[in-house]
Design goal:
Chain B: GO terms for molecular function: transmembrane transporter activity. The complex is a heterodimer of chains A (about 425) and B (about 450). Chain A has about 425 residues and is α+β, with helices and mostly antiparallel strands. In chain A, strands 3-4-10-7-9-8 form a 6-stranded mixed β-barrel. In chain A, α2 runs antiparallel to α7, α2 crosses α9 and α3 packs across α6. Chain B folds into 2 domains: about 180 residues, no CATH class; about 250 residues, no CATH class. In chain B, about 50% of the residues lie in helices and about 15% in strands. In chain B, strands 1, 2, 3, 4, 5, 6, 7, 8, 9, 10, 11 and 12 form a 12-stranded mixed sheet that branches. In chain B, a hairpin with a 2-residue loop joins β8 and β9. The radius of gyration of chain B is 31 Å and the shape is elongated. Chain B starts with a helix and ends with a helix. The chains are: A alpha+beta (about 425), B alpha+beta (about 450).
């Protein structure tokens, strides 16, 4: 089929053509970017933290009337309180393992610093940023982390210190990501320096993966850089990670307040004090899932509206050209020729709109990068978007095109 | 004449219900998506204290210098203060009102001993905090300047905490056990929860589900060792240990705000801050040039990126959707109007001026817009209800349907549709009567 008469016909109703093409261009631009946002969020939410996330509970509590001083006697008193709690939790039925822990991945309460291979480097920069986890010999087992080199902490490694005591530990475990960055030749046994200090800290073990607590963009440069210190941190509050037997998590969560009040009633436990890791994860990613859902809804509305617009305008054109279609049919055009005419016409308009749309899509992505924290959209999103609008156009034009094909040749003989 | 045009428009719309429905749906969904995201955007980018926000300032002093900055283009000084500078600024007392503030999270033993101890959030502040932010009181008032200096054991509590502990009666004068010490209640706040939390952006990011239940005198909290429960950022490890070590360090953990009513006051305070910096520099503390900031509340909220970028991106995308819906409506209206070319031809031939055609078709567009607006209103209501499911909890409660949103939804729908109808109407008015009559 020659394109020439078709283009000549399109010129007759420029404005309708331009409106549809514009709509397709905008749809392409928005859908590409929205799908890219959805994909980025889904990818973020699906990152494994490195833990075995099922059957894991976090307990956060605060003692009342506990010593607030930093003298050794106060610290020892706080440590006693903490050890009592750990004992009580370990003694609970269905509890597999318990560790004190200052935080967990995605909890958004974190302790961050920098690590370096040389002493006395700058605190804020260092060689690498890292988050710190403080736990005991059961930290690995309770969180379900995978040790890939070296050894776990032993009970003898674990010490305690006041919450604001700047003393550095003598040994730590680090994540593989951090180990590879600092010591590509193997990190076990090597010394590193925490927070620009001058006291060496030996790496005894390397874990496969452990995400940092913060989910914010400011922490996105060191998401997998974690350092684990063999320490019970003593303050007037404490956190414990608890692993339960499969299927027993709810029962254990229910029983924890009673068990802790049993040890010592002078403490604060509120609604949020005993939380499953699932709940922590859901809270952390709520905004991302919400954004993905919102973009999904916008995409669906957009595609539906554009499809409806194509159906509406093409139907109008079919009505307008009723007589011409009849003439063509009377002159020997087959039904399929008429249908193809409208399909090809749509492809031409949609293609024209899509070319503009590709430029718009890239422009929108640039703008989002400039004004908001967005990354560059890979070009294949644009190609998928292109395919989507072309297919959408073809599907939308099908109904009016079939109606056009069914116009009987006898129409040509009527005057109106 | 208007009634006649409305009647004509309704007849015409009824004649092609499918097309009409398409337009109404497009407008409805487009407007609803925009209004829903706008309601969220409005909620997070609002001015928390509109009558005064341009008089409240956040001083920032560059105590860390260039070495602490991450990137090459970043020239911003730290966004909070260390203890020594905060206390020095309080002592100098150069503004009308000023307060250093830090976040605390003490435990309280309820007077009813059968209740378990509870944990509350709050701030350690100076007495001027309350008049500076026009904090409303249900009972009593804030404490006095002498309570500040004498480190008095007084407390201001929220109406929520008053309800929980004292059943909502006037509890001024009663005592409250905070961290094992007795405090005299001097004031009970009325409902006060400004959003964004402009006086503690660093800890809350502007929005939080935590409730502010207690306010203690700053000096008292320091003396009692009620430690900072908010962010602490350090450029070097504190030399001393504990909370006292933190007070001696250059770590930043204190928020600071001042009220400056006149332009001259602002300039004077700026000079004071720069002078303070130079004084410290001469004493050998800094080796870099003056790099202070004094931002008012709107500028501060902007600088700290309080409005989440997600809400802005959503708004941009939803506005894009609205534009597509309008282009779509313009196309459909064009089809609809031009299909009636012969009708227009007859009217024109019988003497109707172009203006009459304009009026008739714009009214038709307006009716489509109004119908779309009504649908949009319902969908916006559904949208605002359902964003609560997907937004972070601290923001979800802020997005709501109110009268102004309702009116805005209708106005946007009608105006947008009339705008979309302009071109089709113009085309309709250019129809040549002779041509139309002839072809029949």
């Amino acid at each position: 089929m020659s394109l020439h008469p078709m283009i000549a016909a399109l010129r007759k109703h420029k404005s309708g053509v331009v409106l549809i093409a514009m709509q397709i261009a905008l749809t392409l631009a928005i859908v590409c970017n929205a799908v890219f946002i959805i994909y980025s969020r889904v990818e973020k939410v699906n990152r494994p933290t490195g833990m075995d996330e099922s059957n894991l509970i976090l307990v956060s509590q605060q003692w009342v009337g506990a010593p607030s001083g930093d003298d050794p006697a106060s610290i020892q008193k706080l440590d006693e309180l903490q050890r009592e709690d750990i004992e009580a939790l370990r003694a609970m039925p269905d509890v597999v393992s318990v560790t004190p822990s200052n935080s967990l991945p995605l909890l958004d309460s974190s302790w961050n610093g920098s690590v370096a291979t040389k002493p006395g480097s700058d605190l804020i920069k260092g060689d690498a940023r890292s988050t710190y986890y403080f736990g005991d010999e059961n930290f690995l087992k309770t969180l379900g982390l995978q040790l890939v080199a070296g050894r776990n902490f032993t009970a003898g490694d674990v010490t305690n210190k006041g919450f604001r005591d700047p003393a550095e530990p003598s040994l730590v475990m680090v994540t593989k990501e951090l180990a590879d960055k600092l010591f590509p030749q193997g990190a076990v046994g090597k010394a590193m320096y925490l927070d620009g200090g001058t006291k060496p800290t030996t790496i005894v073990g390397v874990v496969a993966r452990l995400q940092v607590p913060s989910n914010g963009t400011w922490a996105s440069t060191f998401v997998w850089n974690s350092t684990i210190e063999p320490l019970r941190l003593n303050a007037n509050y404490s956190r414990y990670a608890v692993r339960t037997k499969p299927g027993r998590m709810d029962a254990v969560m229910h029983a924890i307040p009673g068990a802790l009040y049993g040890v010592n009633p002078m403490r604060v436990l509120d609604d949020d004090s005993v939380k499953s890791f699932g709940a922590i994860r859901a809270d952390a990613y709520r905004a991302d899932i919400g954004m993905a859902a919102l973009m999904g809804v916008v995409c669906l509305i957009l595609l539906a509206v554009t499809a409806a617009g194509i159906v509406g305008l093409t139907s109008f054109w079919v009505g307008q050209r009723h007589r011409q279609i009849g003439v063509r049919r009377a002159l020997g055009a087959r039904k399929i020729d008429i249908r193809h005419y409208f399909q090809l016409e749509n492809l031409l308009i949609a293609g024209g709109g899509a070319v503009v749309g590709i430029a718009l899509a890239i422009g929108l992505n640039r703008a989002l990068i400039q004004y908001f924290e967005m990354t560059t959209m890979p070009f294949w999103y644009v190609l998928v978007g292109l395919a989507t609008v072309l297919v959408l156009g073809q599907l939308a034009v099908l109904v009016p095109a079939m109606r056009a094909a069914n116009v009987p040749p006898v129409v040509a003989t009527r005057t109106v | 004449m208007l009634g006649y045009y409305i009647d004509l428009a309704v007849r015409s719309l009824k004649r092609s219900p499918g097309l009409t429905m398409l337009m109404v749906l497009a407008i409805g969904f487009g407007v609803a998506a925009s209004m829903t995201t706008y309601s969220v955007f409005r909620a997070v980018s609002g001015d928390p204290i509109p009558w005064k926000s341009s008089k409240l300032f956040v001083p920032q002093i560059d105590i860390w210098g260039p070495k602490a900055r991450q990137g090459g283009t970043d020239t911003e000084p730290p966004n909070a203060m260390d203890y020594n500078d905060a206390v020095a600024l309080m002592r100098a007392h150069r503004a009308k009102y000023q307060s250093a503030m830090y976040h605390i999270s003490p435990s309280i033993i309820p007077p009813d001993r059968s209740m378990h101890p509870i944990n509350v959030g709050g701030h350690a502040v100076y007495s001027e905090f309350f008049p500076m932010f026009d904090v409303p009181f249900q009972y009593g008032s804030g404490w006095s300047a002498s309570d500040d200096t004498q480190s008095a054991a007084v407390v201001v509590i929220s109406s929520k905490l008053n309800q929980k502990l004292f059943g909502g009666v006037n509890s001024v004068g009663k005592t409250l056990d905070i961290e094992g010490k007795d405090y005299r209640i001097v004031g009970v706040l009325d409902n006060w929860a400004p959003k964004p939390v402009f006086y503690d952006v660093v800890n809350t990011g502007g929005f939080t589900t935590d409730f502010e239940d207690v306010f203690l005198p700053f000096r008292r909290a320091i003396d009692m060792g009620i430690a900072n429960d908010g962010n602490t950022n350090c450029d070097e490890i504190p030399k001393g240990s504990g909370f006292v070590g933190l007070q001696q360090s250059t770590c930043i953990w204190i928020a600071y705000m001042v009220e400056l009513d006149e332009k001259a006051d602002v300039a004077a305070y700026r000079d004071y801050l720069d002078g303070y910096f130079r004084e410290q520099k001469e004493a050998g503390r800094f080796s870099w040039p003056v790099n202070n900031r004094l931002r008012d509340v709107p500028a501060w909220l902007k600088d700290q990126h309080v409005a989440p970028s997600d809400t802005q991106v959503s708004l941009v995308v939803a506005l894009g959707l609205l534009i597509v819906c309008l282009v779509n409506t313009a196309g459909l209206l064009l089809a609809k109007f031009l299909r009636r070319s012969s009708e227009i031809g007859v009217r024109r031939a019988l003497g109707a001026p172009r203006n009459a055609i304009y009026t008739q078709f714009l009214i038709e567009a307006g009716i489509v817009g109004a119908a779309g607006g009504l649908l949009g209103l319902m969908l916006t209501w559904v949208g605002v209800k359902s964003v609560a499911w997907v937004l972070p909890k601290e923001i979800a409660t802020l997005a709501r349907m109110d009268f102004s949103l309702l009116i805005l939804t209708l106005i946007v729908a009608v105006i947008a549709t009339v705008l979309a109808g302009l071109y089709p109407t113009w085309r309709a008015s250019r129809v040549q009567p002779a041509l139309q009559l002839k072809s029949n």
